[in-house]
Amino acid sequence: MGMWSEVMRMPRILSPVTSFRGAVEVISAGADEIYCAVRIPKAMHLLNRPASCCVPTYHELGRIANHARLKGVETVVTLELPFISDFMATQMKEHISSCVSEGIDALIVGDIGLIRMIRDMGLDTPIYASTLLGAMNYEAVEFMRKLGVERVIPERHISIEEIGEIVERNKDVEIEVFVHGGGCSNINANCYLELSRVPRDTYNKVASPTNLMVHPCRWPYDIYEFGNGERKLARAPILDVFTLCSLCQLPELIETGVSGIKIVGRCMPLPYQVKATKMHRDLFDLMKRGLRDGFNRAQRKRFYRMVESFKEDPFQPGSPNPDGSWPTHREVACARGRCYYSPFFHTPYRPLDS
Question: 351 lies in a domain?
Fold first, then answer.
């Protein structure tokens, strides 16, 4: 961990919301920005997000944006539907206009064609590039900057060192990174293992009772020796690099200069959204106090003790241990090695000619 300085900027905490009540509680828990999707009337959500993951109406979005503004918090809307065919254009334009008219601060967009359409509509609302655009290096971020994007959310599968390089080489674009909640085993922009493509009876046979195995990339597979189909070597979730949190990596992430850290969880219950926000706010407050003296050894020890001592499972709220005690965060995430930005899950990019 490098030396901290008093001028080091702390990133914003971005938290998910799905209702006005949720926005009030998440903001009180310490969110600097909130983000949400808004249900599109009479539209099929191509990314299989149910209505419960969305703010139900434009009117409620307006209430959320107004409350957030009064609290000095920005509201960002993520556009669920990628712009993939002409027949969707009219509906998407109406949806975007309705969201913008409610006083939101920015749009998260996951499709280049949709970015161009927003600009053709004459809107000056800031556009943030979704992780669905698959940015994994500074060249990709520069390309998006030329499209008029002001912030980029890179793909999860890059290392902290690569994040630092992107920040250093793209000074005119904000970089926001995922830090908490369900990670993805695949590159977001190139995943075809959607649950909806798997027969329900197949899913029911292999899914874990704890619902930890949702997508096929997290299922166990039978592994056989090549050339000898009769010899079974193991049964293991060989595609599974599902990650849960990066609390232990927060100091290093902050040192990269990222503008924001993003908590995943628009489809999670409100207690999770609030709890995850407060965990990060508490740790940020501790690190802020450490800016004056370089985040010394004693403060680091206290930081990691705080990480280990968080009570209850933030990923499965309300699930006690068999003996009735509540699991610590270390038992839930750390012991399983479900860490964002750990070397095991994030191998640095290497050019083909290296």
Answer: no
